Input
Amino acid sequence: MDRGRVRRILAGFLVALSVASTPLQARPGLLGALNSARAEGCGGAHGVSPPLRANKQLDNVARRIARGENLRTALSAVGYRALHSSSMFLSNAGKDADIARSLARGSCSELRDVAIRDIGIERRGQNVWIVLAAPFGAPELADTREVSERILDLANEARSRARRCGSKSFTAARPLRLAKSLTEAAREQARDMARHSDLTHEGSDGSTPAQRVTRAGYAWRTVGENVASGPTTAEEVMSGWLASPGHCENLMDPRFTEMGIAWTVDAKSASGVYWSQVFATPREAR
Output
């Protein structure tokens, strides 16, 4: 059983800027100036909406960064889950409008990112730390039927033509069908992984994929499973599986005729989203 992992790495970075030294103004003025720059656009690109909103957790993150913590550690410490995030440091900061213009020049892509919704600010004398973040969410996964059918379509599209998975070559394979009992087995593992923040083929009760399929009432000849953590769309998780030789082999295996797919979204878990894709061939199949 392949135990390769598909993970999404959430990363931030630090940008240091310096502007002319003049007295700092009140925070609402800086937030307003940043939102004006965001709406106006930068780098020759149009502005975006909605505006950034102040976030107390990110204020705490900015405060921790000012004390020397890195972005990832600070986000974890305050319990803020971000799809992606960035931090900026400004020394000798001037007027709010000057700070906003400097950020627009040095961090235009972050300022214009429509997924970035929250901001945290820490001021110490003439120094300013700013944290921008896209809050965790998986709205694309809300419609279970739509996402399941999309995964099935993507899997069958992959199987419709010859493909190389690592060192192995596969010819086109017949399309898969969704099976309710296999989805039940997949759901059991996805929930279990999210509950324990563990990406694994082994259930917390010691169960194997085959045992979970049996418990779901499916009489099988062959069973396989792909798991993943982090992706928030059908396209992203399928792209990751196809890029991983072991997962790709399961997807292309001509022995499999049916599939189940499930995911669990849990912001409190280590990766936020956990996936299980179960493949099988029923015992009576020829």
